[in-house]
Amino acid sequence: MKIDPAVILQAIDDKILAGSEDGRRDHLGASLIGGLCERSIFYSFRWAMAKKFSARMLRLFDRGHKEEFRFEEWIRSISEEFWAIDPRTGSQIRISDLYGYFGGSLDGVCRNPAGYVGDYLTEFKTHSVKSFDKLVMQGVKESKPEHYTQMQIYLKYQPKLTGALYVAIRKNDDEIHIEYIERDPEWAEVYVERAKRILVAIDPPIGHPGSGEFNYHCRYFCDYGDLCFKGRTPDKSCRTCAFVELTNDGWMCTKTGEILTSQAQKDGCSEYERGF
Questions:
Q1: Helix residue ranges per DSSP H, the chain
Q2: How far apart are CA 271 and CA 264, in angstroms?
Q3: Exposed (0-12), middle (13-18) or buried (19+): which is 202, by Cβ within 10 Å?
Q4: What pTM value is reported for the model?
Q5: Which domain holds residue 180?
Q6: Going by C-beta distance under 8 Å and a sequence separation of 6 or more, which residues neighbour residue 156?
Q7: Tens-binned pLDDT, residue by residue, of the chain (276 aa)
Q8: Same structural domain for residues 222 and 254?
Q9: Residues 55 and 180 in one domain
Q10: In Å, how far are 79, 85, 141, 218, 240 from 40, measured between CA atoms?
Q11: C-alpha span between 268 and 240 (Å, rounded)
Q12: Do 269 and 200 fall within a single domain?
């Protein structure tokens, strides 16, 4: 039998898509809070629209995840010690605040890398050619403020760490760029306050300065443009319902008083009314 390569590729893509998640996280992530637009972060936290990625994009995400093992190997080889697992939990090192609604996972911590004394947060990122070149020219704070913010949040909740090492790789040729990031407590506090605003917000915040239907970022880089500018209705779930309230104990249905599980929030019910 003659094999059709297109059939093989489609089978691979179908398998990848079948095992993919919809991007609906229970918590508001530190990796997200430094994004350009507060409104888009609100939409993400409220599950306003499930993200649907192509199989190609999912392969790219998976490649970035697998690159972390290479990063870890390199950093471990020049450090006295490296760890990414919290011995108290047996899971990845996490930070959490605001009743567990805000948090994130650290890539790892290295001790005395290349003879520099101290324990340092490590943050590993892969970049396209364009993104990497911009990073080298401008530095992480200017070119990738969301990554800078993520590190500052982690440093805030890990006060014993000396600073952070941002390790980036250009995917096409394995060129590496490393930056040392010092603590910036004021920067971190600004974004913790942003997280607080988003958590308690009932209606979507205003967009970023200059946002609009014809804004380049809104048009080509935001997942929620249809919600902002084309009248798209948010996906139905408890998080977009008028009868939900965020409490210290969890998401509560104000009709029943029930604290909702993550699956219950996704499933919703027949009493749903659009909240925003």
A1: 5-18, 38-45, 55-77, 129-138, 140-143, 145-157, 185-200, 216-220, 225-229, 262-267
A2: 13
A3: exposed
A4: 0.92
A5: 5-232
A6: 185, 188, 189, 192
A7: 899 888 878 988 888 878 777 778 999 999 999 999 999 999 999 999 988 888 898 888 888 888 899 999 999 999 999 999 998 899 999 999 999 999 999 999 999 999 999 999 999 999 999 999 999 999 999 999 999 999 999 999 999 999 999 999 999 999 999 999 999 999 999 999 999 999 999 999 999 988 988 898 898 889 999 999 999 999 999 999 999 999 999 999 999 999 999 999 999 999 999 999
A8: no
A9: yes
A10: 39, 31, 21, 10, 14
A11: 10
A12: no
Q: Are residues 73 and 195 in the same domain?
A: yes
In the numeric block, the tokens 């290479």 are attached to 70
Rg (CA), the chain: 21
In the block, which residue shows the tokens 């009248």? 231
d(CA 111, CA 81): 5
Query: Is 25 found in the same domain as 141?
Result: yes
* Distance between CA atoms of residues 118 and 240, nearest Å: 45
Tokens 């929030």 correspond to 265
Total structural domains in the chain?
Answer: 2
**For 26, which DSSP code?**
S
The CA distance from 120 to 180, in Å, is 9
Among 160, 189, 165, 197, which residue's Cα sits nearest to residue 178?
165
Contact 253, 220 (CB under 8 A): no
Q: Is 75 helix (H, G, I), strand (E, B) or coil?
A: helix
Q: How many CA atoms, within 13 angstroms, populate the side-chain half-sphere of residue 147? A: 24
